[in-house]
């Protein structure tokens, strides 16, 4: 388990997303507590052990935050990303669920905006 995943995800959110309502947090399925803040979408970040998936999640989040909704304005929407313990099969399950609902996933090539970077050392 890479302990830098949450920090790297938050760094990529910070450089790719203009909204301050997107956060990355760490959780464990065995002792899971709800995020400290209420949110509209919660994403299990065991999907993000592959850099392409980090890019895809950033793209999905940005789309969510910029698409009008009947109940929420752009500045009211909030997304929480939760990094969980490792589950390599999670993305395939995630993709399968989307396909069952007539949704498609796109992984590469990502637009330059969604490139994923490691957080710089301080």
Automatic annotation (TrEMBL):
<dbReference type="InterPro" id="IPR029063">
    <property type="entry name" value="SAM-dependent_MTases_sf"/>
</dbReference>
<dbReference type="Pfam" id="PF10294">
    <property type="entry name" value="Methyltransf_16"/>
</dbReference>
<protein>
    <recommendedName>
        <fullName>Calmodulin-lysine N-methyltransferase</fullName>
    </recommendedName>
</protein>
<dbReference type="InterPro" id="IPR019410">
    <property type="entry name" value="Methyltransf_16"/>
</dbReference>
<feature type="region of interest" description="Disordered">
    <location>
        <begin position="100"/>
        <end position="122"/>
    </location>
</feature>
């Amino acid at each position: 388990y890479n302990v830098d995943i949450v920090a790297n995800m938050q760094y990529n959110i910070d450089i790719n997303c203009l909204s301050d309502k997107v956060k990355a947090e760490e959780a464990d399925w065995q002792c899971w507590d709800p995020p400290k803040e209420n949110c509209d979408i919660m994403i299990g970040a065991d999907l993000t052990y592959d850099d392409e998936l980090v890019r895809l999640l950033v793209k999905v989040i940005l789309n969510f935050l910029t698409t009008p909704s009947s109940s929420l304005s752009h500045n009211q929407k909030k997304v929480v990303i939760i990094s969980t313990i490792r589950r390599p099969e999670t993305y395939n399950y995630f993709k399968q669920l989307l396909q069952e609902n007539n949704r498609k996933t796109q992984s590469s090539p990502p637009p330059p905006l969604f490139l994923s970077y490691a957080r710089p050392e301080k």
